[in-house]
């Protein structure tokens, strides 16, 4: 069954290429780890990423997605902590019902820092897209990435070619040189690592660091934004091509 393009109509902050990639990688995860595959996402918003992932599990008839979100927003969103931010929970639930994926989802309506024990100690896929300040991203990595089994996938959203700098700072400090993770893909603003021995040469890691520092951040110049957009498109097309079985 192909990716349901109607998923792109769900309100959300992920690009349609990212939604499709989440669907495809979730399917690959189940094919790789079997019926008892455990996937987890931190940050659901209105459910665009949730439905993308869970649709693959529904198609495979296997796997479960732990979906963590307190549905009261985060610091970077307008209206946060003012009493004016509307809860996303009702529309989130409506989207799960609309796409008939709820049976493949364990909903955790809570903050990620309060949900660690509610998630199994063995994960095969982890998508981090919660609060984007450094401490929050680092806490999500520390609390949940340790659960990823060998060969599993670690995904960060808003991690490349973006206004945000904090997720990539966590990646630089905790993942890029980590011997247990190797870079797997960049799709849109999503950076993906796989829990296998780090095969990325030092010179490539150095180059990535320089590119990230130049192309990420809220106060980028026009040339930086143009380069960011070009890299966004190029890495997305390249990864999509390779992920579809080309070499």
What does the model show?
The protein is an alpha/beta fold and 247 residues long. The chain is 39% helix and 16% strand. It contains 7 helices and 7 strands; from the N terminus they run αβαβαββαβαββαα. A 7-stranded mixed β-sheet has the order 3-2-1-4-5-7-6, with helices on both faces. Helix 3 links the parallel strand 2 (64-68) and strand 3 (105-108). Helix 1 packs parallel to helix 2 and helix 4 crosses helix 5. The two termini are 24 Å apart.
Which geometry do the CA atoms define?
globular
- Total domains, how many? 1
Mean pLDDT: 89
- Major sheet attributes: 7 strands, mixed
Q: Radius of gyration over alpha carbons? A: 17 Å
Enumerate the spans where pLDDT stays under 50 for 5 or more consecutive residues.
none
Strand elements, count:
7
> Beta-sheet strand percentage?
15-25%
Kindly provide the name of the CATH class.
Alpha Beta
Q: If classified by CATH, what would the architecture be?
A: 3-Layer(aba) Sandwich
Please give the alpha-carbon distance between the first and last residues.
Answer: 24 Å
Order of helices and strands: HEHEHEEHEHEEHH
Number of helices: 7
Strand order, main sheet: write it out.
3-2-1-4-5-7-6
CATH homologous superfamily placement: Vaccinia Virus protein VP39
